[in-house]
Amino acid sequence: MGDIRRRGAVVLGITALVAPLSVVMGSTTAQAASCTTRTGTYQKQVERFLGRPVDGKQSVNDCKAIQAFQTKHAISPAAGLAGPVTWGVMDLMNRQKAVGHNPNKAGTCPVNRGRIACVDLTLQLSWIQDGTKLVHGPVPVRTGRDGHETRTGLKKVSWRDVDHVSSLYDTPMPYSQFFDGGQAFHSVGISVWGQPGSHGCVNMTKTDAAAYWKLLRTNDDVFVYGRKPGT
Hints:
Blueprint: H1 22-25, H2 43-50, H3 60-72, H4 84-99, E1 115-120, E2 125-130, E3 133-140, E4 153-156, E5 159-165, E6 172-180, E7 183-187, E8 202-204, H5 206-215, E9 221-225
Parallel strand pairs: 1-9, 7-8
Antiparallel strand pairs: 1-2, 2-3, 4-9, 5-6, 6-7
């Protein structure tokens, strides 16, 4: 989230939500926390998600795989425990993947306003549609945390700044497109599944934020609905 002062097809692929664990398995960060020997409450579910042997018992390799996932998605502590926070992120990924190419199946996002960016807070998904035609997405997003919720309702893109920097948090907000005061679509350099969430903005990957920048214009509609888990 930033101030309003001016300073200055699926691209991500819901079917590829988890990058190869080998990318982070050998990193110093992934090994920073001690690897727990405890069997987690959601051991079987997490093992299944990660493609591990599903026996419901913690092993060294289970722990390393869980720890790598936690490190990649900023889940703390990254100790390799198959607990509720880790499974919550995985379960959300599963539910996002299940949406497929029909994110507005229930018709909640208006189809009578032409080009519109939709944000489903419950599933942490966003997409752009034109009438009933899906133009881009759905893509995973990271919305406002508890106490800084992304506000719901019908809005419009009010202004855009490709190289915006927040004066509130002194944080770069590339590809910013503001639609409700200081709340905007913009890219982040961390996992969009990272907890607990933004300060109200709709965080996206750089690839998706750049695509939104090309597709949306000032005065285009934005519709935000649902409720983010935990808020």
